[in-house]
Amino acid sequence: SACEKGGAWAQALALFAAASVRALRPGAVTRNAALSACGRAAAWRGALGLLRAAARLGLEGGPVACNAAVSACEKGGRWRQALVLVRGGEPRRVEPDLITFNAAISACEGAADWERSASLLQHATRQQLLAPSVVTIGAMIGTVGARWELAALLLGQLRGALLEPSASASCGLLTACERGRQWELGLAALRGSEARGAPPGTPERNAATSACGKGHVWEAALGLLDDARRCAAGLDAISYDTALSACDRGAQAEHALRLLREMRQQRMEPGVVTYAAAVSALARGGRPDLAGELLEELRRDRTALDVIGYSAAIRAGAGRATRWQEALSLLAELRLGAATPDAALLGEALGVLEACCRSDEAPEVMADTAGTAQLQLRLLRALEGRG
């Protein structure tokens, strides 16, 4: 029990094995404590091995043991092993209950496998377990990916049973709306929660803001940020990142600059994603001068950008006579940082060379990378033009 509370799963397994060797015949309580230690530490191999060892000693796998083992598989990202346990595979004689099914469905959530989670729910119903709970439906919503219709249907089932969805279930619907490019539904779901007296938390607001950004409605995204300020809801770095991404997609340079300043004033540490979105928003929004200044500031502070940030930086050089030289310099800088340019960045760089009538420099862009077939074709055309 002490090993369980301390998360010392290896010691718990060793004690169980020692008791078995010395013919002390450890009981279900001892086994369950060792399994719980494995569950806390995501030690799924240890949990499965312990179940097998206990089965050889004639210990039946009750719900507590099964729950701990499935929990270990869930936390260890081993959804297949979790499914085997729930469906009565090896080790034999394990007895699942509703908590077990919830944990197994959560394991499917990590794999974004809604079909298997639905199959588990049917299996639980056939075994005449308790009716699916808020936890069950919430875990299922987390598996649907971009299938926003399915997420909305599952949430509707909860409300039809007069159950208030959990925060994770509401966030799951909003995330599905974001991935499915359904910003209007996401916004309606958020407003619905507020109307029912269940104020959405920061993760839900962030998901709705991201959905609006991906739907190219930057005004709605910034409106959500303003709403959060008015109701004193918490804002975190992700809140600003999603709003900045919306500004980037909407080419809103001034709003992006304001958000970056506000973030710094609140002593939040902008990350690579933040700066990449800000540089890109400034470049797209017709302020390449400010994008260039931000890039210089990042260089002075030795802040690294990602590939998206470098693509934005190349775009930011528009209108300058030395634009093509800057593009090649940025590309070289990225490669020195051991990063691999992607097709989008190479396309930006080739576009700069073509616009500046410097196609003779095209081979430099494609150095050390095969690129895509389309980019290779552009390179060949550039070389033909040079000849």
TrEMBL record:
<feature type="signal peptide">
    <location>
        <begin position="1"/>
        <end position="23"/>
    </location>
</feature>
<dbReference type="InterPro" id="IPR002885">
    <property type="entry name" value="PPR_rpt"/>
</dbReference>
<feature type="repeat" description="PPR">
    <location>
        <begin position="236"/>
        <end position="270"/>
    </location>
</feature>
<protein>
    <recommendedName>
        <fullName>Pentacotripeptide-repeat region of PRORP domain-containing protein</fullName>
    </recommendedName>
</protein>
<keyword id="KW-0677">Repeat</keyword>
<dbReference type="InterPro" id="IPR011990">
    <property type="entry name" value="TPR-like_helical_dom_sf"/>
</dbReference>
<dbReference type="Pfam" id="PF13812">
    <property type="entry name" value="PPR_3"/>
</dbReference>
<keyword id="KW-0732">Signal</keyword>
<feature type="repeat" description="PPR">
    <location>
        <begin position="271"/>
        <end position="305"/>
    </location>
</feature>
